[in-house]
């Protein structure tokens, strides 16, 4: 499974440095889900809480694949959430199962309005705009009906902007 990920030789430390930050400046990490491309650099944040849904953590324990073994070997410790969680008045986590059973997204209220950080709830803007069952990318939805409900719930928030993880 880990072999199927396309590795980008750029550390999170280098990406943060582009913005004048270092991993130590990060106080909280929200993992939308526990696929390697979304939690692979978690060890850089050993000092910060790593937040994931309990359902997602239980999923990786059931799946027992290379990612599970890597997470266990790395010693990552997660703060497990049970559903929607308000972190601050302008920042909350909402459950968005479908891509995985324990997927979550982040909702931020900013001066621009509601901003969504949706992880893999929709891989790209094209999937967000045209969630046609017949044309979903491989791997987009482990449970298609639950996935559609999650997208409907996210759209109901009437976001000013949506941030995608896999939109080029």
**CATH level-two architecture:** 4-Layer Sandwich
Please give the order of strands in the largest beta sheet. 4-5-6-7-8
H/E element string?
HEHEHHEEEEEHHE
Task: Determine and state the CATH class.
Answer: Alpha Beta
Structural class: alpha/beta
* Uncertain segments: none
Cα distance spanning the termini: 22 Å
Shape: globular
Beta-strand percentage range: 15-25%
Annotated CATH topology: Metallo-beta-lactamase, Chain A
Question: How is the main sheet built?
Answer: 5 strands, mixed
Q: Work out the number of β strands.
A: 8
**Total helix count?**
6
Average pLDDT number: 91
Name given to the CATH homologous superfamily: Ribonuclease Z/Hydroxyacylglutathione hydrolase-like
List the domain count as a whole number. 1
Q: Over the alpha carbons, how many angstroms does the gyration radius reach?
A: 16 Å
